[in-house]
Structure formats: structure tokens, C-alpha cells
Specification:
With about 375 residues, the protein is an alpha/beta fold. About 45% of the residues lie in helices and about 10% in strands. The protein contains 13 helices and 10 strands. The protein is globular and about 55 Å long.
Amino acid sequence: MNRRNILLGIAGASAALVGADKARLAATAPTDQTRAITGELLIAGFSGSNAQSPSAQALADQIRSGAVGGVVFVKDNVGDRDDVLGLVRLFSAGAPRRVIVAIDHEGGAVQRLIEAHGCARLPSARQVAVDHTVAEAQAVYAEAGRAVARLGFNLNLAPVVDLENAGNPAIGHYGRAFSGDADTVTAYAGAFVRGFEVSGVCCVLKHFPGQGGAQSDSHEWAPDISAVWSEADLAPFRRLISAGGVDVVMSGYSVLRTVASDGRPAALSREIVTGLLHDQLGFDGVAMTDDLDMGAVGYGFARRSAIVQALQAGNDALIVRNRTNYDPALPASIASWMSEALADGTLSMDALSKSAKRVQKLRNKLTRLT
């Protein structure tokens, strides 16, 4: 082969490589569809406790553009009453659809909104079950729901539906579970959900599939509950879902090898989210992750991996606090990761579209309630 033919061959090969690279980039680039789906599924956090926070303002811009569909407030985001109202107005102004505005309002140790915000202190779940009948509890939670709704929140990341276990450092220690008896938990969790809903606030059952027996805190590490979990832990979820009126179920980050043999935390396990929650229990509402940045996930998975695995598992809504390793372009990053996973077959557009429709159904209900 002469020099001219060699050069022509090299040029042709280079052109083919460039063409293949362009095709790969085109196949994995975010599309309008993946960006729209990200905007439905993502519930993002922010830094700061007032509307002047640059992080809050950036998130508000993303909400207005349709790139994000929900916001979660954590303890550090809650300033005084005017600050809270200012932030809710910021996130809602100019939004193209109903914004999901979420907060933890369990009572006891987990209550972000207090008297200074116009919200009476709620007893812990354990104390409510001791001191109140189911009907009385529903009235208590209805009043709490009215106060939360007045501030503009429409999704309460509660109640805890785990069974009481005093050795659990994150739940039992603080009295966050109603009881160790599944019937009692079912009755009082149902009263919690009904009370808040009549006041215009939807609720989230957590932490599926039941991690009351965990002996470590999933905020720090994924607890293995395989040896202590039983069908009794699942019973309150099963009964409440069967009774109807459950809009959202949040999976935790416990490891349950008897169901998920690969040892993935519950929220990242297809066997648990799709197989157990959606298929076996027949739940057709929104399957939600706990914060994908918390320790149980963060120590073992990069954010990209955690998000793709959460979607692959069958989750419909993703909570990402976005405080550690803050990504100002988080929605665009997720849309890119989603596109890449679609291109290699890890995710399917059909499943993602179904997830988006479930979240849209929740938004429609929030609109009707307010």
C-alpha cells in the first residue's frame, strides 16, 4: 500500500470515529422528554433560610423553567414565619404547574414548624397513641394540617409506619413510631393521613418496607434488617394501601436480603420498590425515595449511580437535598444521566413515563385539595 492510500485510510478511519462519537453524544444528550420527566420526578433541596439565598433563587428559577417540580424544606431551611412564607412564595411564583412543597411534620422530635410559625407542638407518635383515641388523634392531626397548609406546604413527609423498637436509634429512641403492634400503627397512621388530608395536605408513609427493627441510623449507614424483619413490619403498609387513600410511600435505606438478595438498600432495589410495593401490594401511587444524598446512600454510591438505581428500582419521585457536593445544575445533570441510562438500556422510557404520570396524578390531587 502506498503512502497516499495509507493516509486516505487513516483519514477514513478518523472520520468514522468522529461520526461514531457524534452519534453516541446525540444518543445520550438530554432531550426535551428527559428534561420534562426530570421536572416531574425531582424534589430538590436548597441552602439558606430566606428568599435572599442564592441557592433558593437558583432553585426558583429552575422551578419556573419546568426543570424541577418540587422542593423539600429541612431544618436548616426554616427561619422565622416571614422567612418561610417568603420562600414558599418564591418557589410558587410563576411556576408552570402545582409545585410540591414538602416538609417533615411528624410531631415530637421531628417537627420543623413550631409555635413561632403558627404550628402547635405535636406530641410524638408514641405519645399520641397512648394519650388519644383514634378519633381524637385524627382531630389533632387535622388541626396540625390546617396550620401547615396555611404556610403553603402541601406534602408532609410523614407518618412513620415502622413498628416501635426501643433499640432503634433513629425511630424507637425518639418515639417516632406509634406502637410495636401492627394494628395500632395501622389505625393511628390512618388517622394521621386522614387528618392532614382534610386540611389540604397529602402524606407519605415511611419507611418501606418497615425498618423499626434496625439497630443503626440510616442517616449514617444502611442498616441490615434481614435477621429481624418479618411480615409484621409490612402489615401496616399492606393494610393502609389496601384500604385506599395512600398517595405516596417512601422507601428507606435499610438492607433486606431476604427480599433483595443483592444487598441494595430498599429504595435502590427493584425487588423491593417494584416487586414488593407496586406488584405484590398493588400500590399504584407515587413511590418516593428518602433523600438520595443521605449517609446510607452517599457512603456507598456516587450521586449519579444512586439516582439511576433509584429510577431503575421503580421510584417515581426523587428527593435530592443537594447540599453536600452542591450541584447548581442538578436538573440538567439528572436529565443527562437519565439519557445515558436510556441509551444503554438501563432505564426504559415507558417506565419513566409511567412514573411521571403517577406524579402528575399527585399534583392534580394537591391542586384539588387547595
